[in-house]
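Quick illustration, no need to memorize.
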Amino acid sequence: MSKVIKLFYMVLLQLSPPGSSQLVTAADMTLSLGWFSALAAGVFSAHVLQKLLFPYFWRDLLFLMKVIRYGVRLELFKFTSSVCTVLDRFIQQAQRIPNKPFVIYDGSVHTYRDVEQRSNRLANVFFDRVGLRKGDCVALLMSNEPDFLCVWFGLAKVGCSVAFLNTNIKSKSLLHCFNCCGAKTLIVGSDLFECLDGIITSLLEDNIQVWAMNSQSEHTEVHTLLDKINTASDQPVPAVLRVTTSLKSPTLYIFTSGTTGLPKAAVITHLQSLKAAAGFWAFGATEDDVVYIPLPLYHSAASLIGIGGTIELGATCVLKKKFSASQFWNDCRKHNVTIFQYIGELCRYLCNQPKTEVDKFHKVRMGVGNGLRQDVWREFQSRFGNIKMCEVYGSTEGNLCFMNHIGKIGAVGRSNFFYRLLFKYELVKYDMQKDEPVKDECGFCQRVERGETGLLLSKVSTISPFFGYAGGKHLTEKKLMRNVFVKGDAYFITGDLMAEDYEGFICFRDRVGDTFRWKGENVATTEVTEILGLVDFIQEVNVYGVEIPGHEGRAGMAAMIIRPAHTFDGKKLFEHVMRDLPTYARPLFIRLQEFMEMTSTFKQQKFQLVQSGFNPSMISEPLYVLDYQQKNYIPLTDSIYQSILAGERKL
């Protein structure tokens, strides 16, 4: 270090003009050498100290600065006459890069101009022929396809809010969805019209008009869209229809399984949509990236983060109708995919595929998603290359988001002193047996120590608002906990048990309450309980999730009491769950009991049932397993149990 400083002074001596009063003397050089040496030593020591004690300081700071910068941009909308929504951003991109591919689907390329013009045609049809007006709510039941986006954008251009319906939901739940979001119009994809079998009459009786993405319909009261799109104008409808002056205006309703049983319509405002659209950008994505979206568009991950993020960047997305593990990497290589969206199960499916010599031959550099187990994470990167996996934690309706921008294996998010200043969250002690938070003598919650597991709560504030659910204030209130630490405060209940280590990494531990996750979907146990309760031989039923080694999430299991003078009928139960429950919500295991254990607050006791699992050698009560081949619930034997553990039996 001193040699460098001496060399620097020698250069100064050579450059100083003869006779100048600014000449550097030997004494000056000696004095300054000591000062510079001390400064350099101090800087070096501080650098080493920062690396040892705060190794992620600069990466955290730069990431947080990006987040703050975007947040300031959103705050500025409050001082302007209008908000630049995700739709507005799409229209801007369509004008800036009209010929750039926006969506690649099933071998076809749809440019930004293509989607812009087709959504204009649909907007004109919606306004002139369907009679939709600004403020109307429209339900959308469609699979992943480009027309999902065109219909979505077309409705938004008219000023309508859109309710995305889960394509797996059945009759009772489907009717419920219309009631809670107030939709009086349904647009259904051509391949999903059969989902309306049995309820089309009820929809029409409720004065809900049904429009199908077909050219003709066998049902006289079902209207068609495709024949009207071709003759419609591709000129934009008046921009005033879509203009909004508030970030808090609802733009979407996305249904999520909560603790109340039937699906709940989470209110998605423009603020939430814009925040989600910044996800890819925050992780370092650019307009040159190609994003692979194999997740369903009715979920917020694919629609808000995936499509919204693609639009924000001006990038290209490859949309898949349905995830295929065998086609995934070939698709990525064919379309030069650089980023893909995932849920934990998706990555596990990819790891279970036969190994090939070209596993690492691709351009994928980043994955963005949630629910990735540590073992799968390590195996995925070992097999397919050092792909940066960016975990994002947050529920559709929640007011808190964690982002693991560091990429540390096993962490769902990253926190630090600066993050806590902006976003107030707490981990509180939770009693699993009583199924409730632990309170002190004053009735307030107790924070856990660093490294301990606790229930994650997020404070509701102007910075982190909670917009709740459509269909009644009581639904929103059930997700809030009041008087948590002081009188008058309010926190959003995530329902997740988390732990934060000493470096600030946040890890998911488990879910509490009446929801568990299976095959990438949230399962509301009370909804399944209500549907199973319709079976004539069931007197009482308690639904919960059990862990299966090698599988992400928890598989459904139902403990039930049989009515007097009745017997368990596996075939009848099989037919019932096949008809009325989506695949991911069907109980895989049944446990017959003589009586149900209850908590002190008269809730069904799930803790012991979850802990005991489904091992027939450890449980004396009769156990049954869902068997698709025999179309029955058959006795769960030890050999079947072992085949499940070995991964030999398809679940």
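Residues 415-511 form a domain with the Luciferase; domain 3 fold (CATH 2.30.38.10).
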